[in-house]
Amino acid sequence: MKRLRTVWVALVALAALVLAMVGGAGASSHREAPMISEDPVADNTDLYAWVRNPGTAQSTVVLVANWIPLEEPASGPNFWKFGDDALYTIHIDNDGDARQDITYYFRFQTQVKDPNTFLYNNNVITVETNGAGEAVNYPGLNVQQSYTMSEVRDGNRTATRSSMLTPPVNVGTRSTNTATPYATLAQAAEYSLGNTGIKVFAGQRDEAFPVDLGSIFDLLGLRPFNDAHLIPLPVEAGVNTTDGYNVHSIVLEIPTSRLVDKDEVIGVWSTTERRTNRIYSNNSGERLSHNGPWVQVSRLGMPLVNEVIIPLGFKDRFNASHPVNDAQFLDFVVDPELGELIPFLYPGVVVPGEPRNDLVAIFLTGIPGINQPANVRPSEQLRLNTSTESGFPNGRLLTDDVVDVEIQAVAGIFCDGSPSAPDEGCAGPTFTSEYNMPPNNALSDGVSGNDMPFLSDFPYMPLPLSGYDS
Amino acid sequence: MRAEEDIRRSLFRGVIAALLLVACNAAPAAAPTTSVPATTTSTVALIPAYSPDNRDAVAAVEGFLTAEGQGNFSESFDFLSAVDQEQAGDREAWVADHLFLLPPITGFQFTSDQVVDDRVEVMAQLELRPGLDELVGLTPAQADAIWVVVEEDDEWKVAFTESSVVPLYLEDSGAPAAVSRWVEERRQCATPTEWEGGLLGFPALADQLCDASGAVEVGEVTTLADAAESEPFLAAFGPEVGIWARVVPVMSPTPMRAVVAPIGPEWVVIGVLEAA
């Protein structure tokens, strides 16, 4: 007993040290926080959630969580892959209390079939499947990644499947598009979990988040509004920064009845966890080892929250935090810095002042009557009303232009307030806002759509760009 | 500063994860671990093996373990001491994180209890649902537990973070025979008995056993900590792998080392390394 108490004290000290070292921890969105920008394999980039066939017995919820931002397709010989040393998760809160009720856990493993070559694939890659058409082997592929998925409900594991394969990355014409079209290779990596009705895919996909990062982070430039900026430039069309890049996606399609409880609204967020200690060693050519319990290093629910709402000094903390504790970030939503920057950088644009209760609804509680749970505890999650059609901010479709929606939202187009009295802020959200007028409702980075077509069926995300063609 | 609950939650997870690890470290990793019978119970069953001296304290542990065995973690929370309830965060956090807090209990048997200062220690043997995966690592079939019980407002409560759970692993001596059987199955190109999650390390070496001719022998058992290429196993199962995994050399036309894990009543091959 004494020994355990001693250990407890030591662990407290260790954890305190770890916390001090990491300044909190983690991250979300594209390289949006200091720590996670240096750990792309663990970096959540986007989260999507929508319902298909709402209100019917066939209703399903599609969840898409992406990692590894701005992934260069031609990244051989060591192409991008999920981290063997990370724990990837997608959490569901189905009663509004800001706690996960259902979690989908993913762990990946990499097997190098032949360590005596530098090649990612040592032949044209083909696929062998089981009777269900699911991949059991990719002949020709030397670096194979497999994974295990577990569904955990109220602390109990309720579904699990292992030895599922990720498809090869889209290397190029010779490797992944000769004997077997890449679409066929990838399709074989769609798996079903027994009689649960759950479908899962994990692997490389095209980066489909439209955004003009180059202009936005150059003093919040919006190219179509360049002439209205405090530092004017010629008006230009937006440039989609993510064109030409891939990501790694985990896609789930789950019967809606498996996710909802009493409330039709669910909250979704994804995280990445790493072990607390990473130890490098040069003994015997050893690489590194990972020790200690899992700790969250990345988090993503609503898009762009940590990117442009949370200040730099708090971003790592946000990524290490849990929704149940989001009250600590409330002030950044009630009085967002972006709400002050827009009228400063774009003179003449009138934006509501604090309190921004419209944004509190959009980002923290869900909008009453649309996607707010009956017993909601304010917290940052992607909220989805499963009984009706989806579209951001009620869930998020792959095609939603969330950059424009959020810029305009910060500009007040859902604000229950008056441009004649911006200092009074917003009483809440409304769809008949007086701010819903030009230029507020026209603000845009000038980017929408995607360079690759979305798929009409599972896994919906576009096929990845090939290294050869990039 | 992070929110207090975020910090507490991380610490709680860490402490509980460490309970098993630290308990394992109490015995030298290379030393034979306690042998366990091959049979396990499948349901929670209180089998009084003795007459408890501290019935109310033992009853508190019984209530806790029964709720755990039923997967009713919301109820097992009620048996925790106030300090432990606070450490857990709240009932919802205790439930949500439970997969990482305590292995699934399928049965238990009390063996003794004693008063130590102002508390009671209740000793029990636990039957667990054995398994190996990359989420929680290895769950053995059995464990010894010392549950610390404290009195609060005339009720006995389980001091969870002061209690200990010591996994019981198979004896090393069974590992070579398991590897021999696996090699033979592989040589016959039959579906081998191996970890269902797929072999770690260099599985292509195992594929070369199919239809291989020549003599095959297995060598002496060592720990994985002796192996230079343990990183895939560490990444998959965490640092505890160094405690329970064993390495058995395979001398054959394709020499290799088989890495085995004590899953349930059997040693099972979970990976292959190149020969040392």
Kindly summarize this structure in a few lines:
The complex is a heterodimer of chains A (470) and B (276). Chain A has 470 residues and is of the alpha+beta class.
Query: So what's the overall shape of chain A?
Result: globular
Calculate Rg of chain A over CA atoms: 23 Å
Succession of helices and strands of chain A:
HEEEEEEEEHHEEHEHEEHHHHHEH
N-to-C span of chain A: 61 Å
- What class do helices, strands and sheet pairing of chain A give? alpha+beta
Strand content of chain B: 25-35%
Layout of strands and helices, then pairs:
The complex is a heterodimer of chains A (470) and B (276).
Chain A: H1 2-22, E1 44-52, E2 60-71, E3 86-93, E4 102-112, E5 128-129, E6 135-137, E7 143-153, E8 156-165, H2 173-176, H3 182-187, E9 191-192, E10 199-206, H4 213-216, E11 246-255, H5 256-259, E12 265-280, E13 288-300, H6 305-309, H7 315-320, H8 330-334, H9 337-345, H10 357-365, E14 382-385, H11 402-410
Antiparallel strand pairs in A: 1-2, 2-11, 3-4, 3-12, 4-7, 5-6, 7-8, 9-10, 10-11, 12-13, 12-14
Chain B: H1 4-25, H2 55-69, H3 73-76, H4 82-88, H5 91-96, E1 105-116, E2 119-128, E3 131-133, E4 137-139, E5 142-152, E6 155-158, E7 164-168, H6 175-187, E8 200-201, H7 203-207, E9 217-218, E10 222-223, H8 231-237, H9 241-244, E11 246-251, E12 256-263, E13 266-274
Parallel strand pairs in B: 8-13
Antiparallel strand pairs in B: 1-2, 2-5, 3-4, 5-6, 5-7, 9-11, 10-11, 11-12, 12-13
Structure description:
Chain A is an alpha+beta fold and 470 residues long. Chain A is 17% helix and 25% strand. Chain A is built from eleven helices and 14 strands. In chain A, strands 3, 4, 7, 8, 12, 13 and 14 form a seven-stranded antiparallel β-sheet that branches. In chain A, strands 1-2-11-10-9 form a five-stranded antiparallel β-sheet. In chain A, strands 5-6 form a two-stranded antiparallel ribbon. The model of chain A is unreliable at 1-28 (pLDDT under 50). Helices cover 30% and strands 28% of the residues of chain B. Chain B is built from nine helices and 13 strands. Chain B has helices spanning 4-25, 55-69, 73-76, 82-88, 91-96, 175-187, 203-207, 231-237, 241-244, and strands spanning 105-116, 119-128, 131-133, 137-139, 142-152, 155-158, 164-168, 200-201, 217-218, 222-223, 246-251, 256-263, 266-274. The longest helix of chain B is centred in the first third of the chain and has 22 residues, at 4-25. At the A-B interface, helix 1, strand 4, strand 7, strand 8 and strand 13 of A face helix 1, helix 5, strand 8 and helix 8 of B.
